[in-house]
């Protein structure tokens, strides 16, 4: 009788161990991992690469991202008018050079997912406004922030870059973001910078105000 019970317990333990190993093999995520992924706050900037308001907006956001890097995901989307007869499949307000600049920035984010590095790249790009969108300047800034330009160039000059751009323009349209720069935090329009002014920013437009909004959204 006693050996019978012992054997049952042993079999039960083996069974539990088996389930544990199976779980590991199937990589069933723990609750903690799930929550962590879900809670990162999306921050989206709807911009045009050769727009002075986008430059001003990204300068502020470069300070914000440093404060909230681990709890948020920053992404830029581009405003343009879809147009099948245009070179890039869309017409950019500041010309084809701007379309090219938009694609360079999208490809940078595609190749390098470190958002701090991406903002360092943008800060470099902004140092010479006239050269935004040019191949040489994108390459120089990319190398300055430690990112080899070859994979980005490959993306820019292929369907990968073009598709990223078109998807991005569609996303701006879907969000009714038609002013560069429009800032969305956690899926909601948060603030606009246009014509040198900030507006529609009820919770403020300083770096500290944006940090606060992101931290509040994270705690929710
Ligand atoms: C579409 O692209 C063509 C070629 O670049 C241009 O001439 C035309 O004005 C564009 N249309 C719009 C609505 O932007
Ligand atoms: C921009 O989008 C807003 C809605 O978000 C709309 O009310 C406005 O008319 C649009 N402006 C232009 C110029 O399309």
From TrEMBL:
Keywords: Glycoprotein, Membrane, Secreted, Signal, Transmembrane, Transmembrane helix
Subcellular location: Secreted
GO terms under cellular component: extracellular region
InterPro entries per record: Interferon-induced_GILT
Presence of keyword rRNA processing: no
Top-level taxon of the source organism: Eukaryota
GO molecular function, one term: oxidoreductase activity, acting on a sulfur group of donors, disulfide as acceptor
Pfam families, per the entry: GILT (PF03227)
UniProt keyword annotation of Membrane present: yes
Transmembrane feature ranges: 9-26
Broad class of the protein's primary localization: secreted
Similarity section: Belongs to the GILT family.
Protein name (record): Uncharacterized protein
Naturally occurring in which organism (per UniProt): Rhizophagus irregularis (strain DAOM 197198w) (Glomus intraradices)
């Amino acid at each position: 009788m006693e050996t019978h019970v012992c054997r049952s317990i042993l079999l039960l333990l083996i069974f539990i161990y088996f389930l544990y190993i199976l779980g590991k093999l199937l990589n069933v995520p723990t609750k903690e991992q799930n929550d962590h992924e879900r809670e990162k706050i999306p921050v989206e900037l709807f911009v045009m690469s050769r727009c002075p308001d986008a430059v001003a907006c990204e300068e502020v956001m470069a300070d914000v991202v440093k404060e909230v890097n681990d709890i948020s995901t920053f992404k830029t989307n581009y405003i343009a008018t879809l147009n099948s007869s245009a070179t890039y499949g869309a017409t950019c307000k500041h010309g084809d050079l701007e379309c090219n600049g938009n694609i360079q920035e999208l490809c940078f984010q595609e190749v390098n997912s470190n958002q701090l590095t991406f903002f360092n790249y943008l800060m470099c790009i902004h140092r010479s406004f006239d050269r935004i969108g040019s191949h040489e300047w994108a390459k120089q800034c990319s190398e300055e922030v430690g990112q080899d330009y070859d994979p980005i160039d490959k993306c820019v000059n292929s369907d990968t870059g073009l598709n990223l751009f078109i998807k991005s323009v569609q996303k701006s349209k879907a969000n009714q973001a038609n002013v560069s720069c429009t800032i969305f935090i956690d899926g909601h329009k948060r603030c606009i910078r246009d014509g040198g002014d900030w507006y529609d920013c009820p919770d403020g437009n300083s770096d500290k105000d944006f940090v606060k909004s992101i931290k509040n959204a994270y705690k929710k």
